[in-house]
Amino acid sequence: MNHKKEIFLSEDDGLFIPEIGSWGESKYQIIYDYNVLFSSGMRHNWDNRIYIDLYSGSGKARVRSTKKILNSSALLALKVPDPYDKYIFCDIDEINIASLEARVQKDFPTSNVRYIIGDCNKKIEPIINEIPKYSSKNTVLTFCLIDPFSLDIKFDTIRKLGESRLVDFLILFAFGMDGKRNINLYLQENNSRIDNFLGLSDWRERWKIQEKKGINLVTFLANEFTKKMVSLNYRKETINNYISIRSDEKNLPLYHLMFFSKHPRGYDFWEKVRKRNIEPELEF
């Protein structure tokens, strides 16, 4: 899709702007595309549409080795044609939240926004408490973006959120960047990073069996995680609905965006986004 440049491109406003790789442009377009479909498509079906960004950043990002500045996920979610009824932004870095809040107050002063500083794994209860409770007179649907730099999101965090409210998830799996780079470290019995990510402690034995069958690490972890999401009543077709984001330099897979919903309508939206953005030949 070719969106207007003003939606994505931004300028230096003197506030904190972190750096990202050039592939971030593709990621932001996918996130924006889905937000447009979700926020507009659900506008007349729900009393409250809630947007959560567990790794919100500062609202802007600078493409590494360039002067290009982009609006990142938080500001893009605020720019959709039919804004959400409430936004919840969480980030572990105070400078990110302070910069994001200043930008929101300047450009979106009437938006209903809550800011939470800290590790989302430790702040999940306050985050959940910010989501209105569902009732027959006040229906609530939430879309949650989880876009970490590494595999530091814990499955228990997702479980608590998914079980307490009706939530669709778009999750970045940093398998290419973090998972493959550190797999030898993670395979050690005293390392709990993937244990926490999958919500499992017995995955190593299954991985050894699958590796002998020629299954690669990305496919294995995606399958394991999807099975856990299915146990929370998310739909099984998730494993076939990812989008790969690759590096510009060597066309290597850096990470995958995977969508989880309990309703087929969510996958209808996601499939439209995939058709606009996916390269059919890319596989796990």
Give me the secondary-structure topology.
Layout: H1 5-8, E1 9-10, E2 19-20, H2 24-41, E3 48-53, E4 60-63, E5 69-71, H3 73-78, E6 86-91, H4 94-107, E7 113-117, H5 124-129, E8 140-146, H6 155-164, E9 167-173, H7 175-179, H8 183-186, H9 193-198, H10 203-212, H11 217-230, E10 243-246, E11 253-260, H12 264-277
Parallel strand pairs: 2-4, 3-6, 3-8, 6-7, 8-9
Antiparallel strand pairs: 1-5, 4-5, 9-11, 10-11
Q: Any overview of this molecule?
A:
The chain is α/β, with parallel strands linked by helices. It has one domain: Rossmann fold (3-Layer(aba) Sandwich). 39% of the residues lie in helices and 19% in strands. The chain is built from twelve helices and eleven strands. The strands form two sheets. It has a seven-stranded mixed β-sheet with strand order 7-6-3-8-9-11-10, with helices on both faces. It has a four-stranded mixed β-sheet with strand order 1-5-4-2. Strand 6, helix 4 and strand 7 form a beta-alpha-beta unit. Helix 2 packs antiparallel against helix 12. The longest helix has 18 residues. The relative contact order is 0.13.
